[in-house]
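Illustration 12: Diaminopimelate decarboxylase.
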Amino acid sequence: MDHFQLKNGVLHAEDIPLSQIAEEVGTPVYVYSRATLERHARVFREGLKDAGKVHLAFAVKANPNLAVLRILANQGYGADVVSGGELQRALAAGMKAEDIVFSGVGKSREELTLGLDQGIGQFNLESEEEGVMLAEIAASRGEKASATLRVNPDVDAGTHAKISTGKKENKFGVAIDVAPAIFARLSQLDGLDLRGVAVHIGSQLQSLDPLETCYARMGELVAQLRGAGHTVTHVDLGGGLGVPYKPEDNPPSPAEYGAMVARVTRDWDVTLMFEPGRVIAGNSGVMITRVIRIKPGLGSDFVIVDAAMNDLMRPAIYDAWHDFEAVEPSGETMTASIVGPICESSDIFAKERVVDRLETDDLGIFRTAGAYGATMANTYNSRPLVPEVLVDGDRYAVVAERIEPATIMAAEHVPDWLK
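Figure caption equivalent — predicted structure in token form:
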């Protein structure tokens, strides 16, 4: 469920007409619903009510906006971060350092040091070499860094190849068959408190089967590690639950997921850690765009909008689907391709799709844009960086300004020897 609904013929975000935001802020623009974010955060937590002791860390990469992070911090969520910048954002938003988990395959020495400086709760180690580096840094400071070892279980998540992370050919984690030996060596290092294992097999999962297979393998690994004399107190089960992008999508609910987790992990006696991202933020946001013009095509018309692939990258890089709707639908439909103004054939959001009929200057929205939307935006073709708005009932605020090309140019310099 989300809070983007038709009222008196106009799509609203909670109690604000999207047309009002478009007129006052301009387009394209991302719009988030506080009520939807809070509801999804509660539903995910409630789904795990029978799973024992849990730790929830929102995957900041899904939506790093400070206002979004503050809402989730107020809901008791920590942060799963994959860079020093995300770590600083999480802290700035009010998330507690001890509730931050630092993931990511390429953490630099500087980032590891930053995590120690800030006293974060856990590092998820992606390799033995990373563990050795972290141990050396921590030991030189007279500290022990709490960490888990990320394992690659060689499980196909059944999702898009570019967001699958748990197959043996993927770059993430250490192979499960060598994990016990690596765990044994790292656990001997003075600067590490190696307290468990971590796993994450991919994003936008539509079935629980790959997750259950993965978790069963992790349970066997936990038993093997304990059998070898190691203490295992934490297991990070990652994230990856999908959301419905298309009407026919039917991903597992948090309640169904939680029931599976409780059943598979009931004898583990650990703190279970989770990294939800898309399932919290995906349906909490839309992107509003305005029609520039309708261009006749051979098979169907092109609806050229002022949003482009630099504003919403997912269709261009994943062939991803986002429902497209008119802000003030007439009830009539048309078959059209929705395209942006960038000089790339990949700048297309929908190809020959049946959509609400639109005319020049009409407003439309791309749904399910709250995750991996604004966070992936860029300024290709010297376009402005898209702004973000948060709605709370009958009020809204701009929570990320539109950054104009002139502002970006001001950070560039022509050396004197070219003048």
